[in-house]
Design brief:
Blueprint lengths: L3 H30 L16 E3 L4 H7 L1 E2 L9 H4 L5 E4 L11 E4 L4 E13 L6 E9 L5 E3 L2 E5 L15 E10 L2 E11 L6 E6 L7 H5 L3 E8 L4 E6 L2 E7 L4 E2 L7 E3 L14 E3 L14 E3 L16 E3 L11 H4 L6 E3 L16 E3 L11 E3 L11 E3 L15 E10 L4 E9 L2 H9 L2 H15 L2 H11 L2 H22 L2 H8 L7 H5 L4 H25 L7
Antiparallel strand pairs: 1-25, 2-5, 3-4, 4-25, 5-24, 6-12, 6-25, 7-9, 8-9, 8-24, 9-10, 10-11, 11-15, 12-13, 13-14, 16-23, 17-22, 18-21, 19-20
Helix pairs in contact: 1-7, 1-9
Length: 543
């Protein structure tokens, strides 16, 4: 039989393992993450039109221009672009010395821009635009998109505002539960010369995580000369399409349009089925929902000849009553006092009951309409505004990059902008910048996760695990309580319960040294028992 001492020791070991294992895991995470990481600015490895990793405050002030403009048609209190921009490290510093452009103000208009090193011309090479965004406080409502401004030798970035011409708008935007990654182009109508916005179809991917997890995310747009495009987030494709087929409204209008002046002819019958004019209601069809209750009887004493109301005998015609103006005077009606003593007065009407033979309202069955001509629709005519642009990629050149934003969230960090004509160049740039941050952020999340959160996540993914956890903990706790409450005297007596062997006989099997020790311990135990007995009897023990 296993002793309670052994069971108690085993339960303590189990409890210690349960407590120390997750703590050991957390310590292991912390040791990996506490190592310092120095920042090394990325270097562009290939052709580019613009690249900025914000290596220093001096370089930032030399290149970027904060707008001094005011928004037109806006209340004066919010018309000015007075939102603050600062160059800062992220709140949770992953790379020491890594600076980013941070939008600082809440509920303010922000505008800042920078010229490209050289204009990008839409001819035969793809356009690749890439940058990082980190919503350090999450995102309530606002945007973090960029605008690629139309090349113009007279463009003054100090006056950059919402009406400044741009060719492409790209990046994340969110308000309420509407999460977007914009890709908008400005397409020039060849007939009118007017630029119209064309929006890419929305991604099927759930974008919510990118706005709420407070991690650094990489947004990449690839626009190819064959009009195809791809949108990536964290180097994973979230949208793709073609400028000719996947924009709204379409780049090219339809060849035919509805004739708005066309009207439906008066004799056009578009009723596919009509009531049968020859149908006759069956004679046995009962459409009375309620009928008189045939089982009800008129109460005894009912006064059929007495009206329910009678003229008031005490009423008198007013002295100023003018028959010519007011008509004949009639006394007002009052309740007939005779009816108060009877079940009722006047004509007795049997109460209503549901008709057991009621079949509903009858209507003639429907038949095919012999005059049916089909559903009418207005005729189509050639679209007077039709044109066909087979190369919407051929937009006007871009010469600057700008951020013109409004946000209800602060501390939105932008970093590592690049405009190039080679996706490989953008990938290498990301490997030397975003990939390092992404790895460190994943390690930080693993290191900071609390044991309780780990358990909660496990319970959410596998609810049955919670039941197992409770059962195991209850079992261990029960064993621990039993061990603590067990009678030690019973344990001691069990040591000597060896069939007919006495404690003295057991000593004979021990070595001489152990026999002396054991005998001495037995004497001490007997003296202690004798002392307890003497005290209970009120006697003083003999020394």
């Amino acid at each position: 039989m296993i002793s309670t001492e052994i069971v108690g020791q085993s339960s303590l070991i189990v409890l210690r393992c349960l407590c120390l294992f997750p703590l050991t895991a957390l310590c292991h995470f912390d040791d990996d993450y506490d190592q310092p990481h120095s920042y090394m600015p990325p270097v562009v490895k290939g052709s580019n039109y613009f690249a900025d990793a914000f290596p220093s405050e001096t370089d930032f002030k030399r290149r970027w221009i904060v707008s001094e403009a005011r928004k037109d048609f806006t209340d004066d209190s919010i018309a000015k672009y007075e939102g603050k921009w600062l160059l800062e490290q992220p709140k949770d510093v992953g790379l020491i010395g890594d600076l980013g452009l941070v939008l600082k103000s809440k509920a303010k208009h922000h505008a800042i821009s920078v010229f490209l090193e050289r204009p990008f011309v839409f001819d035969s090479v793809p356009l690749v635009v890439q940058y990082e965004v980190k919503f350090q406080n999450g995102m309530d409502c606002g945007g973090a998109y960029i605008k690629l401004l139309t090349h113009d030798n007279n463009l003054d970035l100090h006056d950059f505002n919402d009406l400044t011409p741009f060719m492409i708008m790209f990046g994340p935007d969110k308000c309420g539960n509407d999460y977007k990654v914009h890709f908008i182009i400005k397409h020039r109508n060849p007939l009118t010369g007017v630029y119209e916005e064309k929006h890419a179809k929305r991604p099927n991917t759930d974008l919510k995580e990118y706005f709420n997890d407070k991690k650094t995310h990489l947004f990449t747009l690839v626009l190819n000369a064959d009009n195809s495009f791809q949108v990536y987030v964290d180097q994973m494709m979230v949208n793709r399409g073609n400028l000719l087929y996947d924009m709204s409204p379409p780049v090219n209008p339809p060849k035919s349009v509805v004739d708005v002046n066309d009207t439906q002819p008066a004799d056009w019958d578009d009723r596919e089925k009509i009531p049968d004019p020859n149908a006759v209601k069956p004679k046995d069809w009962d459409d009375r929902e309620m009928i008189p209750d045939v089982h009800s009887l008129k109460p005894d004493g009912w006064l059929d000849d007495e009206p329910e109301f009678i003229p008031d005998p005490k009423a008198k015609k007013p002295s100023d009553w003018d028959v010519e103006l007011d008509g004949d005077w009639e006394a007002p009606k009052i309740n007939n006092p005779k009816c108060d003593l009877a079940p009722g007065c006047g004509e007795w009407i049997s109460p209503k009951m549901k008709n057991p033979r009621y079949r509903g309202r009858w209507s003639p069955p429907l038949i095919r309409n012999p005059k049916y001509k089909g559903k009418w629709s207005p005729r189509m005519i050639p679209n007077p505004n039709y044109y066909e642009d087979r190369n919407p990629f051929g937009m006007s050149a871009i010469g600057a990059l700008g951020l013109e934003l409004w946000s209800m969230s602060t501390d939105i960090l932008f970093d590592n902008f690049i405009v190039t004509d080679n996706k490989r160049v953008a990938d290498l740039w990301a490997n030397d910048s975003w990939a390092l941050k992404h790895t460190l952020e994943l390690e930080a999340i693993a290191a900071q996760r609390h044991v309780g959160q780990i358990l909660m996540d496990s319970f959410e993914e596998r609810p049955w695990l919670f039941v197992v956890f409770v059962v195991v903990c209850s079992f261990v706790a029960l064993i621990f309580i039993v061990c603590c409450c067990a009678n030690p005297q019973v344990e001691e007596d069990a040591k000597y319960k060896k069939t007919d062997k006495s404690p003295g006989a057991a000593l004979k099997n021990l070595s001489p040294g152990r026999q002396e020790t054991t005998e001495y311990m037995n004497v001490l135990r007997r003296n202690e028992d004798a002392t307890k007995t003497t005290r209970r009897k009120g006697k003083t023990p003999i020394q």
